[in-house]
Specification:
38% strand, 2 helices, Nuclear Transport Factor 2, Chain: A, alpha+beta
Amino acid sequence: MSTSTSSTTTTPSAPSTTRTTTTSGPADGYPAAARAHTVEGGKAFVEYYYATLNEVFQRPRVGVIPGIAATSCVFCQRNEQSVKDLVAGGGKYSTPPLALKNLAPLQGAPKGQLYYQATSAQLGAWVVDGGGKKVHQDKVSSLEVSIAIVWANGSWKLYGADKA
């Protein structure tokens, strides 16, 4: 995903730049593997969701997460709010803040949904301001999570993620 940039030149040597941080869909489109309506396709989608989180936390853009989330996903809404907070404060993560490990399918999901279990790790990444100054460091932590996805309108959407 790219950030839109427009330039206005006041003198030949002094361009001023305005950045837009709103995007309406997934970062770079779903990878081919995540488009399959299968358990493996769902797994690839969950990995893509987490990769997208890392991307929008490092290069904050509002509107990306809702494009890959069910409207009722509270976990997704919290992540989108975190991105909005980063944009409002002019900050970003300097390195990926999250890692997803040991992702495995679970049984018992209703038709049209899939469940997975994984370890979600917070990596102790720093939030930096626009000048690169360290502002806040996340705690290093790890949590077992249950993840639900739903097949809607021809693609996977994150439906929820909670402590297992």
